[in-house]
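Hi support team,

I submitted a single chain yesterday and got back a structure, but I'm not sure I'm reading the token output correctly. Could someone confirm the output below corresponds to the sequence I sent? I've pasted both exactly as they appear in my results page.

Thanks,
R.
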Amino acid sequence: MLGLRQGVLLDGDKLFTEFNGAIAEQYVLQELKTVKGLNICYWAADRGISKVDFVIDNGMAVIPVEVRARLNPQAKSLKAYREKFSPQLSIRTSMSDYEKGDRLLDLPLWSIGTFLSESRL
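Hi R., thanks for writing in. Yes, this is the structure output for that exact sequence:
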């Protein structure tokens, strides 16, 4: 809404260095909220060691979505969720490029809303 480029928020501007993860999560939440018929939740392990930023339910599938603000897409909590619940699809969004793996979809951060609104997950 401010018209800022994605890089200003995520590539190390000193103002946003400490909060870039929270800003990325807020951005993804705002994008998810634009998709009709999507129920958006959150998951945390019983002991609070692991958390998945969003778990979305479109009425046909429950899909965990992990948000990473940097290029390093390592997501241990998403791995823990996948091991516990074996979802058919998991989404990790970050500054990395698109990549489709075995039941794991890596999406560029900027594409999350467009992808979900145009796909039939």
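A quick pointer for reading it: The domain at 6-118 is CATH 3.40.1350 (Trna Endonuclease; Chain: A, domain 1). Let us know if anything else looks off.

Best,
Support desk
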